[in-house]
Amino acid sequence: MIAVLDTNVLVSALWTPNGKAAHIVNQAISGRLKLCHDYRILAEYREVLSRPKFKFYDWQVNFLLERLEKDGISVIPIALPQVPFTDESDRVFYEVAKFCDAPLVTGNLKHYPQDNCVVTVSDFYDKILIS
User: Which of helix, strand or coil describes residue 58?
Assistant: First the structure.
């Protein structure tokens, strides 16, 4: 199975190690879930997870990102400029998900257009990973 994870899923996973987001990330680390990404997603992951306000350890961030990059699927997606976004930094996740025909897992549906590929952490966990 493949998916694209919004950065907020990684933040949630590191904050709450026993939560649904952490379970999803652990599935990716173990190889049961392949994460699609491009260089922009990896750069955003690193930038956000390294912010001092989160107080994540460098080794946590490095371990996580090294595994996701190594075991994931790197792509060069097709741009989708016709799809409107309030925050342009969210566009990359949607473009990669559409290119890979993969679910985009997010903690905030409001950041994305209404599309069946965009799912919440709970929905992905409950309907896809557990079933």
Answer: helix
Residue 62: its pLDDT value, please? 97
Domain count, the chain: 1
Q: What digits encode the pLDDT tens for the residues 36-54?
A: 999 999 999 999 999 999 9
Domain that holds residue 74: 2-129
pTM of structure: 0.94
User: What element of type H or E holds 119?
Assistant: strand 118-120
Q: How many CB atoms lie within 10 A of CB 79?
A: 10
The maximal CA–CA distance of the chain, rounded, in angstroms, is 39
Please enumerate in sequence order all residues whose Cβ is within 8 A of that of 82, keeping only pairs 6 or more positions apart, or say none: none
